[in-house]
Amino acid sequence: MNEESIDIDTQSDELAAVRAVVLSAYPDCVPELVQGGTVAELLASVEPARAAYARVAAVVVDRTEPPAAARPPVVPAGGGSAVVDPGALPPAEKLRRGIEGHRRR
User: Residue 2 and residue 97: Cα distance in Å, rounded?
Assistant: First the structure.
C-alpha cells in the first residue's frame, strides 16, 4: 500500500465517523440524504434531510388521524330505551309484560 491510499482510507473513515456523529445529533433527518465527500458537504446536506423528514412525518400524522366520518357519533347519556317489536315477542313474553304492566298501575 502506498501513502496515498492510506490517506484516502483514513479520510473516508474520518468522514464516516463525522457522518455518524451528525446522524446521532440530528435523529429527525433522513439518513440516506446525509452525504458528501467533505465535512462541509455533510453538514450542508443536513437541512434538506431534516426538511424531507418533516414532510414525510406530516403526511404520516395526517393519515393516522381518523377522518370525521369514521368517528362514532356522540349519543347523549340516559336518553333512550330499547325498542321492542311486539310482533316478534313470543306469546308467553307478551303475557308476562302485560301482567307486569298491570301490577305497576
Answer: 102
